[in-house]
């Protein structure tokens, strides 16, 4: 029997459940999940392996109208992948109406030859009759080779989705070892964990103008401790105050939550040091965008 492999790009509006789905398929936490939009800024590759296939997932940033340099980078990076992969998965949230964002993506996809499947996620939140209507509506767009309804969170029909995806893979090599679920360097994952905690702890007070730069990850020679130092960049002095909090309490909470998750990731004790710095309008400065690792 031949070995099948290939690359799959999962696209769709923020919060439709792309990361949750990839995690449900791969079975481990590889991408950061948040109920706030646009947590996933980097292309995180997750790898699904079984006896006769390997599927490499590219979790692209949410596609939206570019408002600044960072937005442009994200859209470009996402667009580039469309033509390079073996399969495109467009995901929608079945509890939401088809919006202008969806229509824009569909328009964009029309010119792309890569096979496309529509995944209708969160079917645990709707009635069957409504699901049928949604499927008919998207079917009418005439660009999807298949439509697969799932609930990533409740693990419904995920197995079917895996089999459908496998049908689009071609004879190919095993790109990654079986035990590897992500090729992202540790610092990117650590940075995303810290960023996720900042967003979590600051609620809506601090918008998405936060970036985390990992200055150091180093294992101590004599002890089983990993030292991590991170700088949290924000856009305004007032944001800095919010992130640090009264008597530094909020930053402490962020640091503790992040440290615990990083310890679980490394399976080792972690000493995490964080600094908060202000860089005004960093999102509009191409250099900073590059420095923070959002390379194309
Ligand atoms: P992404 O931005 O597309 O990667 O979306 P996420 O995977 O981060 O998910 C966004 C939110 O939707 C999270 O709160 C998830 O827990 C939730 N979610 C994802 N899949 C499902 C699902 O099948 N059912 C329900 N009810 N919620 C889901
Ligand atoms: K998200
Ligand atoms: Mg995501």
Walkthrough of the structure:
There is one protein chain. With 296 residues, the protein is an alpha/beta fold. The chain has two domains: 4-171, 3-Layer(aba) Sandwich (Rossmann fold); 186-291, K homology (KH) domain (GMP Synthetase, Chain A, domain 3). It is built from nine helices and ten strands. The chain has helices at 18-26, 69-84, 100-110, 128-139, 158-166, 186-202, 237-244, 249-266, 286-291; strands spanning 4-11, 44-50, 53-59, 87-93, 116-121, 146-149, 170-171, 211-219, 225-234, 269-278. Strands 1, 2, 3, 4, 5, 6 and 7 form a seven-stranded mixed sheet that branches. It has a three-stranded mixed sheet with strand order 8-9-10. β2 (44-50) and β3 (53-59) form a beta hairpin. α6 (186-202) packs antiparallel against α8 (249-266). The longest helix has 18 residues, at 249-266. The radius of gyration is 20 Å and the shape is globular. 35% of the residues are buried.
The fold-level CATH name of the largest domain is Rossmann fold
Q: What is the number of E strands?
A: 10
Give the fraction of residues assigned to helices: 25-40%
Overall radius of gyration: 20 Å
For the largest beta-sheet, the strand count, sense and barrel status come to:
7 strands, mixed
CATH superfamily of the largest domain: P-loop containing nucleotide triphosphate hydrolases
Number of helices: 9
CATH architecture of the largest domain: 3-Layer(aba) Sandwich
Any idea of the CATH class of the largest domain?
Answer: Alpha Beta
- % residues in beta strands: 15-25%
Q: Average pLDDT across residues?
A: 81
* Outline type: globular
Total number of domains: 2
- H/E element sequence: EHEEHEHEHEHEHEEHHEH
Bound heterogens, unique = guanosine-5'-diphosphate, potassium ion, magnesium ion
Low-confidence stretches: 29-42, 289-296
């Amino acid at each position: 029997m031949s070995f099948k492999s290939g690359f799959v790009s999962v696209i769709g509006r923020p919060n439709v459940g792309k990361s949750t789905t990839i995690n449900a398929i791969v079975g481990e936490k590889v991408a950061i999940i948040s109920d706030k939009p646009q947590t996933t800024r980097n292309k995180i590759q997750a790898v699904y392996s079984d006896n006769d296939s390997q599927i490499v997932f590219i979790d692209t940033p949410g596609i939206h109208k570019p408002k600044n340099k960072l937005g442009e980078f994200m859209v470009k990076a996402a667009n580039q992948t469309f033509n390079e992969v073996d399969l495109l998965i467009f995901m929608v949230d079945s509890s939401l109406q088809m919006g202008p964002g969806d229509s824009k993506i569909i328009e964009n996809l029309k010119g792309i030859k890569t096979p496309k499947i529509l995944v209708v996620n969160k079917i645990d939140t709707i009635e069957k009759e409504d699901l049928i209507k949604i499927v008919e509506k998207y079917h009418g767009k005439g660009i999807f080779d298949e439509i697969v309804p799932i609930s990533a969170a409740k693990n419904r029909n995920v197995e079917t989705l895996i089999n459908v995806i496998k049908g689009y893979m071609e004879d190919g090599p095993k790109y990654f070892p079986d035990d590897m679920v992500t090729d992202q360097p540790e610092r990117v994952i650590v940075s995303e964990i810290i960023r996720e905690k900042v967003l979590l702890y600051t609620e809506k007070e601090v918008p998405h103008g936060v970036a985390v730069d990992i200055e150091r990850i180093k294992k101590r020679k004599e002890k089983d401790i990993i030292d991590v130092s991170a700088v949290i960049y924000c856009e305004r002095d007032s944001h800095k105050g919010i992130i640090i909090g009264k008597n530094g309490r909020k930053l402490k909470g962020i640091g503790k939550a992040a440290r615990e998750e990083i310890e679980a990731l490394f399976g080792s004790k972690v000493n995490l040091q964080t600094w908060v710095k202000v860089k005004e309008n960093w999102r509009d400065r191409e250099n900073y965008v590059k420095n923070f690792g959002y390379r194309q």
